[in-house]
Amino acid sequence: MVRTYVAENCVEQQIQEIIGRGKEEVGLIIGCHGNQKEQRDYVAFLATTPSQDDEDAESESEEEVDEKTKLKKEEKQDVELLDEKWIFNHCIQVSRTLPGGFEVIGVYVANLSESQTSAVKNVFVGLFKQVFKYSTIMLTENEKILISISSKTKKATFQSLDPKSPQSNFQLCELKYQHFVENWHLLRTVFRIHFLFPVSEELSCKSIRKQTQQCFKEWCKTVEDPVVLINDAIRADDEVLVEVPKDKAKQKARERQEIRVSLLKKLPYPDSLTAVGGQCRHRFVIKGDVSCLSYVRNKATVHEAKQAILGDIHRTMWARMELLGEEFEVSESDQEMQHNQSFNALEEINELPKRVFIQHPKCDMLLSDYVFSDESAPDVQERFKQVFGFEVAEEQIDFDIESFPEIELSKNEIIPPIVPASLTPNEAAKLLRNIGNEDVTFVLTCSHPMLT
Fold first, then answer.
1. 439 with 282: CB under 8 angstroms?
2. How far apart are CA 166 and CA 128, in angstroms?
3. Are the beta carbons of 47 and 94 closer than 8 angstroms?
4. What is the mean pLDDT of residues 120-140?
5. What is the predicted pLDDT for the residue at 293?
6. What pLDDT is attached to residue 426?
7. Nearest-angstrom CA–CA distance, 158 and 149
């Protein structure tokens, strides 16, 4: 059966712009996989992967470059255009910005040479295998799409392939253009987090980043199957999220509604609180409220809405902890720490970056960025210009959805460790002995009060 792709009208406009430029380029496809019954997927917009221009080569005038150098430069550009690692890094950056319900679902290529065209499949398969291995939070393991664009023929070909079956061939897809994002329901929630995990005695920044990743996996287990309230009501998973009366179906079937979602976590916490290797002398406490946002199709079920908002909760926490880990590594590379492998920042309170929302200029969708307390609008504008290639006005950035903590907490403010109920008294005593009370680090973010 031929799979159908429904693409936003802005995608057709973007393809025409790519055809008009006539340049070799590669980029990512952002969209959403439909359910099994639909047999259709959705394409919201395209994001061009930035080129890897050699700054030194750009500074040279054409007269200074001989023919051999030109050929070498062209060959280098061929390699750089389909650089799997470079596209993967762009995929990570784009994924951090997306709301729940949307993900990177494919790659587009334009005006490739013959040598590049023959390498597309290997790069396509390798890219998504690498992303799946890196994090399943970012995208689902469905078939992915490839759009091949040619300025000569002025056409775009849509094909799909399952990256987990590289021996198969690309299959042509049916394509329809229509507005759909503006009609999809918007889900919002503010999710309260209060989680503790032990940290081993090895306190290098590399070790801390590894342990925060392990912490994230453990934390995800605490929100695997929460009780979900839709506009303060418990609903069955198989119910349609928004019921439309038959006499008003034509009028309201395509109207977007903003829906408040509340999630109640189930206790007890997971049993696995063992630090990643070694004795535990420190603890991380992650505490605060995070704002989450997701989109679902107008005929979505309660279960689909639940999965979309959970996906955004997982992704936003994953993005924040990754960014904090990167900050740790930057700190370690500073001259002051070059000869000191211990991580002194563990004795301080560290703030997770807060989330800000940005309106996409061509698609009726809110995107995200994450800012630390010393960052402002120009930092967001610069990042979005690099990642998406479009300008963002300062007034299009919503900095007020979350805020940094206004009160200063002392590191001596101890929060009792969580002891799993399933442990025997001896096991619990051993766990408590291994978790020290000194050098507690609070990693915090706070948001505005719960939505009303």
1. yes
2. 11
3. yes
4. 84
5. 95
6. 60
7. 9
Report CA-CA distances (Å) from 20 to 53, 110, 137, 361: 21, 11, 36, 20
d(CA 97, CA 68): 42
Dist CA 218 CA 286 (whole Å) = 12
Nearest partner of 364 among 304, 295, 302, 301, judged by Cα: 295
Query: What distance in Å separates the CA atoms of residue 9 and residue 16, rounded to the nearest whole number?
Result: 11
Q: Residue 270 gets which letter from DSSP?
A: P
User: Which pair of tokens denotes residue 156?
Assistant: 């775009």
Judged by DSSP in three states, 294 sits in: strand
pTM of the predicted model as reported, rounded to 2 decimal places: 0.81
The DSSP code sequence of 323-367 is: HHHHHHHHHHHSGGGTT--S-GGGGS-EEPPEEEEEE-SSSS-EE
Per-residue tokens: 378: 């120009």
The helix (H) or strand (E) run that includes residue 12 is helix 9-21
Contact 172, 159 (CB under 8 A): yes
Tens digit of pLDDT for each residue in 141-174? Answer: 788 999 999 999 999 999 999 998 888 899 999 9
Of the listed ranges 69-73, 337-341, 361-365, the one predicted with least confidence: 337-341
- List b or e across 227-252, with b for residues whose CB sees 16 or more CB atoms inside 10 angstroms: ebebeeeebeeeeebbebeeeeeeee
Residue 366 and residue 94 in contact, taking contact as beta carbons nearer than 8 Å: no
49 φ/ψ angles, rounded to the nearest 5 degrees: -75, 130
Distance CA 361, CA 171 (A): 32
DSSP secondary structure string, 87-153?
HHHHHHHHHHHPPBT-EEEEEEEES--HHHHHHHHHHHHHHHHHHHHH-SSS--SS-EEEEEEETTT
- Looking at this protein, which amino acid is placed at residue 31? G
